[in-house]
Specification:
The structure holds 2 protein chains of 2 kinds. Chain A is α/β, with parallel strands linked by helices. Chain A folds into 2 domains: about 5-90 and about 175-200, no CATH class; about 95-165. Helix content of chain A is about 35%, strand content about 25%. In chain A, helix 3 (about 105-115) packs across helix 4 (about 120-135), helix 3 crosses helix 5 (about 150-160) and helix 4 (about 120-135) crosses helix 5. Chain B has one domain. The chains are: A alpha/beta, B mainly alpha. At the A-B interface, helix 1, strand 4 and helix 3 of A face helix 2, helix 6, helix 8 and helix 13 of B.
Chain lengths: ~210, ~280
């Protein structure tokens, strides 16, 4: 695989197993193939694509066609049912912005906590702190984030994510997509996210 | 299910090793995250309150005062084999309770570790296996403050504590292994079996009375000793009391066995967690 490749997906498929009770998931793990406790719902089947470094890619599909599932698979949050995914570099999931935020803590504290969660070291965050704060454009950085407006919340979350090599964006990110794009073009900012937002369709298997 | 190979710097779905070395490396690899989360845990608890962190000092102080009053004035309890000192009972009791609280605080929270953090499972890539370290770390901090209060009381009432008190960390370490093992096991199991979180409160309360916290092992007839000794908390509680109050060094041979057993518990709990975590996202 060339070093130019950021993400490469081969023959990926995902079936969700639906269980009536959570406990059945555990039973299934131990009974193996002898008994089946779940119903299968096929969401993705045989998907292959490659994304080069620096590309902005979008994924288009109808509601429930598996866009988020694909992103979750790439992030490693879900197990693929078949196929393979290869990724290089650090990946941030914008699956839900501010997912790791603690509402009682200030913007500054959350920048550090979330940064660490995303795999940055304290030194790296220190280094990028000013830029992160500037990107977020929040005057209340020392206030608990529960007092933030939803727009401020999302901007702060995005500012943190922008420190990561690759961003996988989902939902609400249209709002901020434009901002990321600006930053991308603007050499003053240090953030250089390579973000995917939208461009190929998914085979939908009903 | 076919395997998929993903090369990246954070831990990944497929490669959940359950070896004892990965138990250790999950601490080392996530040092700063664990530290930040423990800090959040400790400061977060009192966030917004006026006394703030002082609460972790006031709470044990108040509890010890209550115990001292009740057991010396109201119940006039005497520790068997102890002296006539009025406050002795409360201090002996509290020494055992220190370790029990460490255990029960973590174990009571264990079923909620994964369940209360669905974002960590489904929305971000997060090393879930470190959550028991975080709750243990916070509990150890609060335990240390309680110990400080205990030492202050001892200093005022009896003078300098015995030198054997220095062996306390050697007793707390295997207890921590036990706590981690049980936490991993319960955290994972309760994802699939939601009844656990209801059950665990009852079990820890029962365990409080079934452990020699309010009484020494010797207070029970010989025939019950086997039953009491099979309780994994009996050994550390008795050892801690000996070390802190009675001035006796730990039973070294027993301590070595306890290390071996608790290490096995930790490892089994960890292995169970790593084995079953693949299904978390499916049912949360």
């Amino acid at each position: 695989m060339s070093s130019e490749m950021a993400i490469s997906v081969e023959g990926l498929s995902k079936h969700y197993h639906l269980y009536e009770k959570p406990f059945q998931r555990l039973l299934q793990m131990f009974t193996g193939r002898r008994k089946q406790y779940f119903n299968t719902r096929r969401v993705l089947s045989d998907i292959s694509f490659q994304i080069k470094k620096g590309e902005t890619v979008g994924i288009i599909g109808r509601n429930g066609s598996g866009k988020s599932t694909l992103l979750q698979l790439i992030c490693g949050l879900l197990n693929p049912s078949g196929g393979s995914i290869k990724t290089h570099g650090r990946i941030a999931a914008l699956l839900e912005l501010g997912a790791g935020f603690n509402p009682e803590f200030t913007g500054r504290e959350n920048i550090y906590l979330n940064g660490i969660m995303l795999g940055l070291s304290i030194e790296e965050i220190d280094e990028k702190y000013t830029a992160t704060e500037a990107f977020a454009e929040i005057d209340y950085i020392e206030q608990p984030v529960k007092t933030y407006s939803s727009g401020m919340y999302v901007r702060l979350a995005l500012a943190i994510q922008a420190n990561i090599d690759r961003c996988l964006g989902d939902q609400r990110c249209q709002v901020i997509g434009a901002r990321l794009y600006d930053t991308h073009r603007n050499p003053k900012e240090i953030c250089t996210p390579i973000h995917f937002d939208t461009t190929f369709s998914i085979d939908r298997v009903p | 299910m076919s395997r998929c190979l993903i090369t990246r710097d954070t831990s990944l779905m497929q490669s959940f090793s359950s070896s004892p070395t990965s138990m250790l490396s999950s601490i080392l690899n996530n040092k700063s995250l664990i530290r930040a989360l423990i800090l959040r845990e400790i400061t977060g608890r009192y966030k917004g309150s006026i006394l703030g962190l002082l609460w972790s000092f006031v709470t044990p102080l108040f509890m010890l005062l209550v115990y001292t009053f009740f057991f010396s004035v109201v119940f006039k309890a005497r520790w068997s084999g102890g002296s006539d000192s009025k406050s002795e009972f409360a201090l002996v009791l509290f020494a055992g309770l220190l370790l029990f609280n460490l255990f029960s605080e973590c174990v009571n929270r264990a079923p909620g570790l994964i369940l209360s953090n669905p974002n960590y499972v489904k929305k971000i890539v997060f090393p879930l296996e470190i959550l028991p370290f975080v709750s243990l770390g916070a509990a150890l901090f609060h335990g240390a403050i309680s110990l400080l209060v205990w030492l202050l009381f001892y200093l005022v009432l009896f003078g300098i504590p015995p030198v054997t008190a220095l062996s306390l960390p050697l007793i707390v370490l295997p207890l921590s292994l036990l706590i981690l093992g049980v936490s991993w096991f319960l955290a994972a199991l309760s994802v699939y079996l939601r009844d656990i979180s209801q059950l665990i409160g009852i079990l820890t309360t029962a365990l409080l009375f079934m452990s020699p916290i309010f009484y020494p092992v010797s207070a029970l007839p010989e025939s019950y000793h086997v039953f009491l000794k099979s309780n994994p908390l009996t050994f550390p509680v008795e050892m801690a009391r000996d070390a802190l109050f009675w001035g006796a060094w730990p039973h070294w041979e027993g301590l070595v066995i306890y290390y071996v057993v608790t290490f096995l518990v930790a490892w089994l709990g960890f292995a169970w967690f790593q084995k079953t975590r693949k299904g978390f996202a499916d049912v949360i």
